[in-house]
Design a protein that fits this description.
signal; elongated; Secreted protein; disordered N terminus; 0% helix
């Protein structure tokens, strides 16, 4: 499948959002170097696409820790579709601690990075957008946006994070990573369509709904 990356925008965010109760972990994240001693301290989430209670807590062998798994998010547009169904988002907050002298960063597409799968079903008057924002408290953020114009139907695979932006880095010792995925539909009065970003729950078609494979560990 082909997709068009229409904009890569660096944004400054000031986030003050209510969160769900976190899930705690005491296990070292196995993908990090042993010297980094990286731990996932907690995860919390909010958003119209992941209301409280929609995620579930389970062990992830690739991380060697318990974490939250998420359903997909979706949006639709049509003559009788309410305005609030034209967009949906899920924002996840991760508290990650590292050893003194280490930090984590988000890196763009590479051999160990991530892809996401989304499904679109758009008529000729509809446009679907997928936006992913990566933010580390105390640092800048990076937003990647993909736009799809109808008529178009089927599963699409995109790089996420994508090459290009200057992705944020944490302070030494770790920090709080915020990942926000949003799908949105737009068009005139005759526009009809739907869009879904798969989650990592169940069959896990998007095992990197949270970009674990895009975390880089650096000395500082």
């Amino acid at each position: 499948m082909h997709s068009k990356l229409t904009s890569l925008t660096i944004l400054l965010l000031h986030l003050s959002l209510s969160r769900s109760a976190p899930t705690d972990s005491v296990s070292t994240m196995s993908a990090a170097p042993a010297e980094a001693n990286a731990h996932l301290i907690s995860m919390s989430y909010s958003g119209s696409g992941c209301p409280q209670g929609s995620a579930f807590n389970a062990y992830d062998s690739s991380l060697n820790t318990n974490r939250l798994f998420f359903p997909g998010i979706s949006a639709k547009i049509g003559p009788n579709v309410p305005q609030d169904q034209k967009t949906e988002n899920c924002e996840v907050q991760l508290s990650i601690a590292t050893a003194v002298g280490w930090r984590f960063a988000i890196r763009g597409k590479n051999d160990d990075s991530t892809v996401l799968k989304t499904r679109v079903d758009l008529n000729g008057g509809a446009t679907g957008s997928l936006l992913s924002t990566f933010y580390i408290a105390g640092a800048d953020s990076a937003t990647v946006r993909y736009d799809y114009t109808g008529p178009r139907s089927g599963d699409l695979t995109v790089s996420d994070p994508a090459p290009g932006p200057a992705y944020p880095r944490s302070s030494c010792g770790g920090g709080i990573l915020v990942v926000n995925h949003r799908v949105a539909l737009s068009g005139g009065s005759s526009a009809v369509g739907s869009m879904e970003l798969y989650g990592d729950a169940g069959g896990r078609p998007n095992s990197n709904f949270i970009p674990w494979g895009a975390l880089a560990w650096e000395r500082c």
